[in-house]
């Protein structure tokens, strides 16, 4: 049997470009070479796509493209989807593949946009589709569907950049009446804690709103809670399963960008929680996954207080995927090895594609 051609795509324009390179290197290393032929496309920070890139090399040389690298584009022809060079160069093969494995985090990778392109091109891919990606990226809309599904979320206010620029006083009043300090101010559509500020007093609110508004038109102001950070991994399409919970012990005041990727935050798997709380978390994790219409994979993040009161924080539809990341670690602790996890994700991607593309 010929091997299945899996095309891993990574990098991208988001602030999580580097994290994506590390995740992709782990995925490529762990994919079963007996089963799969691996092809790659790297997306530069400027959004150009290059064939046959090694993510580790890009990580080391800061994404430098050499004159030998071939810029490519995905042909949107469902009868013959393939990559072709954008200029006179040739590719080493025919540019065809059986499935795309996007290992991209953040905007334009995890938010449904690139998934829309894959849909138009008519190709199977790993993970959530357009709606799941989009809802999983927008913290304001995500909370709306969580609330509708009866999930517990922290009180919050959503404001637009336009209001921040023109009417900051009314925002201040609303925050003072509806929330209490500390609050967390976040751009609605981003990840990796970029643009997020913990605000402990009124005088710091304006600055935090301006920072968040520099990243997005929409800003979410959330009630801060004193709680443990608990995460569960979910896998599946129509009948998703959740893992045991894991706990993050941030090495800083909150789980900011540095705590996530530079300093030494700790993961505790499984998290020490009451059995009843664990069951509730697993039930909520599946409800969250289904509420945003996720497929394939998702990591659901919670806040759990000292009295084990639970709040859903967010879902990440393309969570960090290095071999030391929470998502694969949680599956390992639940009995699914990293290479087997990749097999299942590929099967789920193909299954979803065939289910949605039945022609009679
Ligand atoms: N409402 C909150 N209460 C307490 N801590 C919070 C709250 N919101 C965010 N945080 C802290 O900030 C981190 C990043 O926020 P999060 O909403 O998860 O954004 P991102 O999508 O960038 O991961 C969280 O992991 C947590 O440490
Ligand atoms: Mg988070």
UniProtKB/TrEMBL annotation:
Cofactor note as given: Binds 2 magnesium or manganese ions per subunit.
UniProt KW keywords: ATP-binding, Cell shape, Cell wall biogenesis/degradation, Cytoplasm, Ligase, Magnesium, Manganese, Metal-binding, Nucleotide-binding, Peptidoglycan synthesis
EC identifiers of the protein: 6.3.2.4
Domain of life: Bacteria
Keyword ATP-binding tagged: yes
Residues holding Mg(2+) 2: 314, 316
Coiled coil: none
Pathway(s) this gene product operates in, as recorded in its UniProt entry: Cell wall biogenesis; peptidoglycan biosynthesis; Glycan biosynthesis
BP term (GO), one: peptidoglycan biosynthetic process
Binding site residues for Mg(2+) 1: 301, 314
Catalytic residues as annotated in Swiss-Prot or TrEMBL: 16, 192, 325
Domain ATP-grasp: 143-347
Keyword DNA repair attributed: no
Family as reported in the entry's similarity comment: Belongs to the D-alanine--D-alanine ligase family.
PANTHER family assigned: D-ALANINE--D-ALANINE LIGASE (PTHR23132), D-ALANINE--D-ALANINE LIGASE A (PTHR23132:SF25)
Role description: Cell wall formation.
Name of this protein: D-alanine--D-alanine ligase
Organism: Syntrophobotulus glycolicus (strain DSM 8271 / FlGlyR)
């Amino acid at each position: 049997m010929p091997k299945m051609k899996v095309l891993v795509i990574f990098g991208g324009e988001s602030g999580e470009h580097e994290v994506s390179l590390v995740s992709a290197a782990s995925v490529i290393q762990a994919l079963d070479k007996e089963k799969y032929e691996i092809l790659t496309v790297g997306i530069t920070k400027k959004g150009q796509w290059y064939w046959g890139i090694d993510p580790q090399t890009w990580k080391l040389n800061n994404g430098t493209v050499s004159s030998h690298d071939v810029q490519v584009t995905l042909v949107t022809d469902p009868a013959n989807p393939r990559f072709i060079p954008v200029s006179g160069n040739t590719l080493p093969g025919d540019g065809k593949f059986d499935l795309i494995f996007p290992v991209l985090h953040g905007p334009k990778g995890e938010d449904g946009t690139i998934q829309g392109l894959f849909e138009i091109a008519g190709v199977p891919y790993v993970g959530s589709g357009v709606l799941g990606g989009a809802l999983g990226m927008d913290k304001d809309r995500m909370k709306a569907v969580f609330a509708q599904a009866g999930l517990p979320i922290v009180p919050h206010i959503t404001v637009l950049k336009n209001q921040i620029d023109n009417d900051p006083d009314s925002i201040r009043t609303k925050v003072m009446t509806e929330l209490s300090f500390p609050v967390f101010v976040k751009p609605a559509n981003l990840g990796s804690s970029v643009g997020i500020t913990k605000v402990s007093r009124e005088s710091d609110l304006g600055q935090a709103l301006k920072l968040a508004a520099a990243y997005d038109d929409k800003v979410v102001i959330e009630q801060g809670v004193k709680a443990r950070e608990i995460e569960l991994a979910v896998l599946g399409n129509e009948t998703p399963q959740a893992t045991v919970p894991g706990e993050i012990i941030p090495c800083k005041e909150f789980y900011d960008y540095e705590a996530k990727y530079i300093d030494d935050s700790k993961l505790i798997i499984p998290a020490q929680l009451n059995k009843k709380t664990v069951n509730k978390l697993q039930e909520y994790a599946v409800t969250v996954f289904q509420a945003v219409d996720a497929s394939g994979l998702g990591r659901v993040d919670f806040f759990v207080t000292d009295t084990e009161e639970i709040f859903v924080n967010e879902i990440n539809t393309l969570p960090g995927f290095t071999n030391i990341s929470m998502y694969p670690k949680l599956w390992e602790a639940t009995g699914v090895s990293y290479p087997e996890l990749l097999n299942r994700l590929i099967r789920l991607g193909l299954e979803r594609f065939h289910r949605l593309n039945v022609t009679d």
